[in-house]
Every structure is written in C-alpha cells, then in structure tokens.
Amino acid sequence: xxxxxxxxxxxxxxxxxxxxxxxxxxxxxxxxxxxxxxxxxxxxxxxxxxxxxxxxxxxxxxxxxxxxxxxxxxxxxxxxxxxxxxxxxxxxxxxxxxxxxxxxxxxxxxxxxxxxxxxxxxxxxxxxxxxxxxxxxxxxxxxxxxxxxxxxxxxxxxxxxxxxxxxxxxxxxxxxxxxxxx
Length: 182
Description:
The chain is an alpha+beta fold.
C-alpha cells in the first residue's frame, strides 16, 4: 500500500443495491470469525438486501464508507426495541472490513449516523456490543460520545465460549432534557 493510500480518508454515502455484495462479505467475516455479532451463520446477500430495505422503509440511514473506491464498512440505525415507548431510541450497527481497521471508517460512519439520526428527531442511541473483550468497538463508541451502561454477562454462546453483551448509550440532540416533539 502506498503512503498516499494509507493516509486517504474514507468517503461516506448512502448504501445502494450495488453495495450489497461488499456489505455481505464484510459482515460474513465478522459473523464467522468474531463475537461482535451473535449470528452464527452469515446471512445471504438477499437477506442483507431485505434487512437494508427494512431500515430504509423506516426512514433510517444505511451508510457505507469507501476508501479508494472500495466499500470498506457500513453502518445503519434500527429501532432499539419494538415497544412504542422506545420510539425515540435507536440501536446502531457498525462493521468495518478487517483490512481497513484503524483507518477512520468506523468513526466516520458512526459520527455520520449520529448526525443523521439526531436530525430525524431521535433522542438516544444504544450500542449493543458483542463481547466485552471487543475493545475496538468499545473504544469507537467512547470516541463518539457513548457511555457505558452495563454488561450482560455470558448471554450468548459463540465460537465455543460464553460471550457478554456490553451496553453503551449516547444522547441525541437534547436527549432527555426535554419532552420529544409530539
């Protein structure tokens, strides 16, 4: 890799159907090799497309990061929980290709996701991070203003061991300082 390529910053945009193969490949790597996702088998490209369509149908952002014209990460927001009282709270998902780690794509994606969701009137974003040993994701969320809310010990069994979920939260806009718009 050239020095210029090593210093290039990611560009962000809305994901398109043409990005589904790259998104599926990035996610498949994380499903197969890590505990960030609690899925055991990578979903198909068609399933990734269905999930993206569900996010977009809710009016929520689904973004990709590119470095040198190649999709190296993706992020989206979805409802935190289905009950109506949670309607102002979202959960984020951010995944970056392993060969693009530590190049700024994750933080750029998460910052853009926060900005877009704040603009939509949401008041809180929750991160449900698979594996309390996932220091990179915890650090990423801390850099983006999330605070630790708790750890659910040993709630998942993956890759031959019990796995925690780390909960982090970040206010959006005025957060809980005022009632939401009606």
